[in-house]
Amino acid sequence: MFWVESRYASQLGAHVRNFKRTGPNNWTFSCPICGDSKKKPWKARGNVFKLEQELLFHCFRCGVSKRFGNFLKDLAPHLHQEMQLELLAEEGRPTSRADDYVPPVMKTYDQVFSVLDTIQDAWSLVDTHPVRQLMTRRKLQQIELYYTEHFWAWVNTIVPGKYVGPEKDEARLVIPFRLGSGQIIGVQGRALNGSGMKYATAAFTDEPMIWGQDRPAYQPTIVFEGPIDASFIRGALATAGGDMTTLLERWKWFMKPEEYILAYDNEPRSDATVKKMLKAAKKGYRICVWPTALKEKDVNDMILAGNDPADIRDMIIRNSYTGSAAEMQITWWKK
Ligand SMILES: [Zn+2]
Fold first, then answer.
1. 197-206 contact pairs (CB < 8 A, 24+)
2. Comparing 242 with 303, which gets the higher pLDDT?
3. Do 216 and 199 fall within a single domain?
């Protein structure tokens, strides 16, 4: 039953928006039940995934859970009928299970999802709100952003005791990190003013904190040090600080090192950055070594300077090197 259903899941693209395969047995798309959504049409919070030998549908926006067969029946009755005939022919069973049993894991998913329900969707704030103004000033676009006035207390409700004793709580922009399935594995909180720690990362699970797993993949995969930079570049991933290569190596979709392009910030005067780049080059990664004439220190600044995201992506690809060529370029580039 699973393989037949899986083949039909692959065909959902004709019936839903933003359809893509995110894993061997995972598909995401804009949920057709709740519309997902008028204001943010790029959202894809409908998921089909495998659980204990069967396929299930779940939407992280409206919370609806169904067996795949029941979901397909409502969405595309003809396709459903075809699948039923095939199941009958192949397995002598007329139907997939018809009852709308919801497996217990969905409860966990719902709990995970609801962590964002207690804070504000930053895109829904009024245009005059300082956070919206920051988003406009930085030309942010296709990135999921939330906002809370009490970042430390909010994180502590999810991971009790994570932050001990910050005397004064802080308002922060919240950037969710999700698996391909949509499940949230943690967040990064960006400070709204210059004082203190600019970025604070809170992991909710043991998954490596890699942002962008829920975006459509696009080769070659460029990896940045932060989600905001990555959000401008098609298919890009980001880590939340930390050691990029170690995180990638822990990741289940790990490819060969040379299949990634690691794009560190354009900081030729930072010993720490130079060191990280050299180390990654030694491990075999493809490294972006920014042109020495480039003034901006990151992608967001390049966007603000009027550059087109596709051109920035091309520049990164053109200026990426592996092995001893990478080490040589880094040595020339550093100041
Ligand atoms: Zn929905």
1. 199/226, 199/240, 199/241, 200/151, 200/172, 201/240, 201/241, 201/242, 202/155, 202/158, 202/159, 202/162, 204/112, 204/115, 204/158, 204/159
2. 303
3. no
The alpha-helical segments, DSSP class H, found in the chain are: 2-9, 68-75, 77-91, 105-114, 130-137, 151-158, 227-231, 244-250, 271-282, 299-304, 309-318, 323-333
Q: Is the pLDDT of residue 106 over 80?
A: no
The pTM (predicted TM-score) of the whole model is 0.69
Going by C-alpha positions, the residue among 116, 117, 107 that lies closest to residue 185 is 116
Ligand 1 center to 65 CA (angstroms)? 9
Residue 33 CA to ligand 1 center (angstroms) comes to 5
Expressed in angstroms and rounded, the spacing between residue 194 Cα and the centre of ligand 1 is 38
| CB-based contacts of 86, cutoff 8 Å, min separation 6 | 4
* pLDDT of amino acid 109: 47
Alpha carbon of 22 to ligand 1 centroid (Å):
18
Residue 115 CA to ligand 1 centre (angstroms):
17
pLDDT at 122 over 60: yes
Do 52 and 158 fall into the same domain? Answer: no
Joined tokens for residue 150: 């009490």
Q: 77 and 122 in one domain? A: no
Cα(35) to ligand 1 centroid in Å equals 7
CA angle 171, 63, 233 (to 5 degrees): 55
Instruction: State mean pLDDT over 278-299.
Output: 97
Give the residue numbers spanning the domain of 95: 2-103
Q: How confident is the model over 170-216, as pLDDT tens digits?
A: 899 999 999 887 788 899 999 987 767 889 999 988 889 999 998 88
Give distance in angstroms: CA of 89 to centre of ligand 1.
32
Give the distance (Å) from ligand 1 centre to CA of residue 36: 6
Number of domains in the chain: 3
Domain boundary among 165, 192, 207: 207
